[in-house]
């Protein structure tokens, strides 16, 4: 019934306008009417006087104005709509008038038109309604233009927000230039909050920090007369965004996208005498999201506050941005420009921080997630402190439990809160700030000195080079005469400088006893057990690569170099390689506890805590491959068999970096069951570019296997609905029967909240649309509880059946 009444209201708006025009005095503003920044008429009122439309002086400068619709009876004239289509505030002597041919014109002091919302003749009057809607109407009361269709940062009761329309915050409370956030009713039906870049007035948005997850099902946003802001779906059902049990007859209400990115529902009593518990002020009754500091996180951008600052949330005062100790705002009038150090920041360049001594200042429950460049899993606090102080790159260390993260400037996504735990160790210069200028001068003098040295030394260097060149030529000629007498294996020069060892095929044949004991096989080849001298012999796993494309053989060394440069506790370490004739072999450290498949589906189910630990390890390893190693690596074959376990049962990812050497069909399989099989992301079957999101999808499937302790495909089950794990798991989640997934797992049932959180992370990862999947960085943050895991949408909404 609510839906019907709302739509009847929208359909009958022209009739309502006509009725109000005849029954309410002075509603219509007739042709030829004028308002100015000064003089007898500076605004036009709605019939009840609740709203006004006109010029308001800006708080920062009373000689500058904004053209706005505002609440006229509140203590402070609160703006509900403002003209945002101009680049600067209005000056005195600006004028707004309704011409004789029905055009609404805003002109400057030179009578130049700077705004004309409906540049056609034929409008008969202007009206500011008691809903707060400004209309430019035709003779039959049909709106030619209305402010409700062009919202700014606020939505009012009876106002809809249709697809491809949005709210956008302004920069500060007293600055109405374009702000950093928008609420967008997307054409795909999803209602989304985005942070924006501030370079232009267009929507250069970063990743969403809140949404209704209604892709394909959302229709429009509506603020109804009962005070509820809801998203109406295509099937006519509603999803409440904010709700009020207060009557719009007794309270002014508005929902505003505030300057800090929070969407807040405000109420203001029309008669506080009738409501003794209320004051004549705006009161927040709902906030979305509830914690902007925690929710506003993205791999790009500075987060809720500027770079090097951190976000603090006060439930009464809202969000504020602050600088860490010994830092100050770059611009005291613009906190979003971030903070700068009040000392010579640590630098690894020559002269960077001359005579500077550093200390660490503690900040409890503070973190800047996303700025890590190194991580240590088993450090005490003293080790964490010393490591940061001795590292010229380190600007902040985060210590929590036995974990130590090091971060470099600029810091991003900073926040403080009791839920964070641990402490931040801020690296600050102990030199008095009064000496900074002289220190910087010393740095500059050193740089100038280097230039002088270059000029003086260049002549003697050239002479030396000629002498050296002659000597080298002689040596080369001597060596070349002997080169034909020696047969050697060619080794890539970039490899020999690393820790990798180049083995001959004979060495590896002897080490594996003629490749006798097979440890396993897969798409990349067969793995054999081997022992390398000297005593005590080192046990290794030797992989003979097969199915390699002929044209890819020349890329083998490049891939080996890429693998050899990786160093992470959750990756299997590469000891060496063989690149001799047609033989391509890799020598890895031996993983004593085998693959995760055997561990997970052995005689006894592994403990819940161990499974969670394994999940975290795999996620960290994938994040390293995707973003933190020198060359980004897409694994393309993430599955239980490629996760190996070392002596401590720590998860290690194997076979990374080899996908480009395989035959094209080695990583692609299909089946009749909903178009995919196992771990393969749907985009493999579409003519689209493959990204790191294929690994995210595979990780999601594997995450479900680990937490549910069952394989992703079980063809022999009696219940056909349970055959494919990803579909069964989502059906249980959607139907509110998550308990079915852990019916025989008492440990997981006890830790139900964690199980549910990991389940939602997995569903996010298996979204068929790659753009809907999180990055591995965001996956890690969800797993570490750094960010809230929002309810995931249906991952199979756009089902694709592949033949």
TrEMBL record:
It is a single-pass type I membrane protein. It catalyses: L-seryl-[protein] + ATP = O-phospho-L-seryl-[protein] + ADP + H(+); L-threonyl-[protein] + ATP = O-phospho-L-threonyl-[protein] + ADP + H(+). The keyword Heme does not apply. Residues 513-797 form the Protein kinase domain. Residues 1-23 form the signal peptide. SUPFAM superfamilies: alpha-D-mannose-specific plant lectins, Protein kinase-like (PK-like). Belongs to the protein kinase superfamily. Ser/Thr protein kinase family. This is Receptor-like serine/threonine-protein kinase. It comes from Dioscorea cayennensis subsp. rotundata (White Guinea yam). The gene is LOC120275309.
């Amino acid at each position: 019934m609510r839906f019907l009444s709302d739509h009847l209201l929208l359909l009958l708006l022209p009739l309502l306008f006509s009725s109000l025009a005849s029954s309410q005095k002075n509603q219509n503003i007739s042709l030829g009417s004028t308002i100015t920044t000064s003089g007898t008429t500076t605004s036009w009122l709605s019939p009840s006087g609740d709203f006004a439309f006109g010029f308001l002086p800006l708080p920062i400068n009373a000689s500058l104005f904004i053209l706005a619709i505002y609440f006229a009876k509140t203590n402070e004239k609160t703006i509900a709509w403002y003209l945002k289509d101009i680049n600067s505030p209005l000056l005195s002597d600006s004028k707004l008038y309704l011409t004789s041919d029905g055009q609404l014109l805003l002109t400057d002091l030179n009578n130049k038109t700077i705004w004309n919302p409906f540049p056609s003749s034929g409008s008969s009057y202007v009206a500011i309604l008691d809903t707060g809607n400004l209309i430019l109407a035709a003779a039959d009361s049909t709106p030619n233009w209305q402010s409700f269709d062009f919202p700014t940062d606020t939505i009012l009761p009876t106002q809809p927000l249709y697809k491809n329309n949005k709210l956008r915050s302004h920069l500060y409370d007293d600055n109405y230039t374009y702000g950093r956030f928008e609420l967008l009713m997307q054409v795909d039906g999803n209602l989304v909050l985005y942070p924006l870049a501030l370079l232009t007035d267009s929507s250069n948005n970063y990743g969403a920090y809140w949404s209704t997850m209604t892709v394909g099902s959302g229709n429009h946003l509506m603020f109804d007369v009962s005070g509820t802001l809801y998203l109406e779906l295509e099937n006519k059902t509603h999803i409440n965004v904010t709700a009020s049990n207060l009557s719009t007859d007794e309270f002014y209400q508005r929902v505003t996208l505030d300057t800090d990115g929070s969407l807040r529902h405000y109420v203001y009593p029309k008669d506080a005498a009738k409501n003794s518990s209320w004051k004549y002020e705006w009161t927040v009754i709902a906030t979305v999201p509830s914690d902007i500091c925690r929710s506003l996180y993205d791999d790009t951008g500075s987060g809720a506050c500027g770079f090097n600052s951190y976000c603090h949330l006060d439930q009464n005062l809202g969000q504020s941005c602050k600088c860490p100790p010994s830092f100050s705002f770059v611009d005291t009038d613009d906190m979003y420009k971030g903070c700068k150090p009040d000392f010579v920041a640590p630098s690894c360049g020559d002269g960077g921080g001359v005579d500077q001594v550093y200390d660490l200042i503690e900040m409890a429950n503070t973190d800047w997630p996303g700025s890590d460049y190194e991580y240590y899993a088993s450090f005490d606090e003293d080790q964490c402190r010393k490591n940061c102080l001795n590292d010229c790159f380190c600007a902040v260390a985060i210590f929590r439990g036995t974990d130590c993260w090091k971060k470099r400037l600029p810091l991003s996504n900073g926040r403080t809160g009791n839920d964070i735990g641990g402490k931040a160790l801020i690296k600050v210069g102990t030199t008095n700030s009064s000496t900074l200028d002289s220190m910087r001068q010393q740095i500059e003098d050193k740089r100038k000195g280097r230039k002088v040295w270059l000029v003086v030394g260049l002549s003697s260097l050239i002479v030396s080079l000629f002498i050296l060149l002659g000597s080298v030529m002689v040596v080369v000629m001597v060596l070349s005469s002997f080169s034909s007498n020696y047969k050697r294996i060619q080794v890539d020069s970039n490899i020999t400088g690393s820790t990798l060892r180049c083995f001959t095929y004979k060495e590896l044949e002897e080490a594996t006893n003629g490749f006798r004991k097979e440890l396993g096989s897969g798409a990349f080849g067969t793995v054999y057990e081997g022992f390398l001298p000297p005593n005590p012999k080192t046990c290794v796993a030797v992989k003979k690569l097969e199915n390699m494309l002929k044209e890819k053989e020349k890329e083998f060394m490049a891939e080996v170099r890429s693998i050899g440069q990786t160093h992470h506790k959750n990756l299997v370490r590469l000891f060496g390689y063989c690149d001799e004739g047609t033989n391509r072999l890799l020598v890895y450290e031996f993983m004593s506890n085998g693959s995760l498949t055997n561990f997970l589906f052995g005689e006894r189910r592994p403990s819940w805590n161990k499974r969670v630990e394994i999940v975290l390890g795999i996620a960290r390893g994938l994040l390293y491959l995707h973003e933190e190693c020198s060359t980004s690596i897409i694994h393309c074959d993430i599955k239980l068999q490629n996760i190996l376990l070392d002596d401590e049962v720590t998860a290690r990812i194997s076979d990374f970096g080899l996908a480009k050497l395989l035959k094209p069909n080695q990583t692609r399989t299909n089946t009749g069951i909903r178009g995919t099989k196992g771990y393969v992301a749907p985009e493999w079957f579409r003519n689209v570019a493959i990204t790191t999101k294929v690994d995210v999808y595979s990780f999601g499937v594997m995450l479900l296997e680990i937490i549910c302790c069952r394989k992703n495909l079980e063809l022999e089950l009696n219940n056909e609905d349970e055959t494919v794990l990803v579909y069964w798991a989502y059906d249980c989640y959607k139907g509110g029967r998550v308990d079915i997934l852990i019916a025989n797992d008492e440990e997981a049932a006890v830790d139900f909240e964690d199980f549910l959180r990991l389940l939602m992370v997995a569903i996010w990862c298996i979204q068929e649309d790659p753009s809907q999947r999180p990055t591995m960085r965001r996956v890690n943050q969800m797993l570490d509880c750094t960010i809230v895991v929002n309810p995931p949408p249906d991952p199979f909404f756009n089902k694709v059946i592949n033949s």
